[in-house]
Amino acid sequence: MNIRVLAVTVNPDRPTTESFIGLHRSGIDITVICNIQFPHYQKLIDAGIPTLDINLTKNVTFKTVLALRKEMTIGEYDIAHTYNNSGLTSALIASFGLPIKIVAYRGIVGNVNYFDPISWMRFLNPRIDRIICVCDAIRDYFLNMKPRFLRMPRNRPVTIYKGHKLDWYQESPKDLAEFGVPDNSFVVGCVANSRPRKGIEYLVEAIALLPKDINVCLLLVGHMKGYKLDKAINNSLEKHRIYLPGFCDNAPTISASCDVFCLPSVKREGLPRAVIEAMAYGVPAIVTDSGGSPELVQNGKSGIVIPIRNAKAIADSIEKLYRDPEFKKSLGMNAKERIDVHFDNDETVKQTINVYRDLLSV
Questions:
Q1: Domain Glycosyl transferase family spans what residues (predicted)?
Q2: Are residues 213 and 146 in the same domain?
Q3: Per-residue DSSP letter, 167
Q4: Burial class of residue 271 (count of CB atoms within 10 Å of its CB; 0-12, 13-18, 19+)
């Protein structure tokens, strides 16, 4: 049976784009709805994948729903695989009465509630056949929601890790002198857009707890603004060691130049791409036991896992890696191998096809 899939997205990242290409090469008849201006669009065209430019804004519109329904009807698709909230809601409305399976994507833990009407228009909608979760923590969240009598069927949420390829991370590491970072510094990096759940303020606090003989610098890449974070930086006795270059293109090459990567999330973490990118370059990561981070990093083997909201634990981990270069090197090598073996994009494609076949009983 030739499986026809309509992928509904806006600006897919590289792993998702490569998954589309992998599905296409594996014989899946896939068409991708996306913004034709997104950075990896040409990869889809070069691979011979049909695309459609349907504007999936944050708000569901009649025009979008009508366009989706028309495409679903004409294309006779077996599956609509959605990758964002507006796309999911639009597809659910557009598919009413049509014999098409709905697959949703979920990348973070939480923010779904049985007493929230919006949740019923998205991930709690019984019309959804499968929810592909990027980590077990997300799947477990769905399966343990309360009240128990409303819980979704156990086969609806499925874990498929979003895979990468080491080949994607071969560019030379960035020269951090561009950001004013002194030579011979022990650099702790973090790439994120600061939100309260990211816990970046605990990382800032940790820098001030380190012994004075450690020549450490903290490099915070991305949108790093927020009341708690601003307060932590302004009150830090070591703020002269903190560098804030803002948003940067090709952030993985910046992570590659760091000695350690740290993501101190306090809740709702999925499978953090920035951590994967650092690990792919052989940079050991310090993460918290939030969401999918412990599934990504093996404590003491491919990185360090610490409790949430614990600046002292962050500082102790940084000091350990600073004083034991061989341990740091070992963690980095294992981190790179872990991404190569356990978070490979080919496996993502294979497992996605298995979900499709299971849904269609083929």
A1: 175-338
A2: no
A3: G
A4: buried
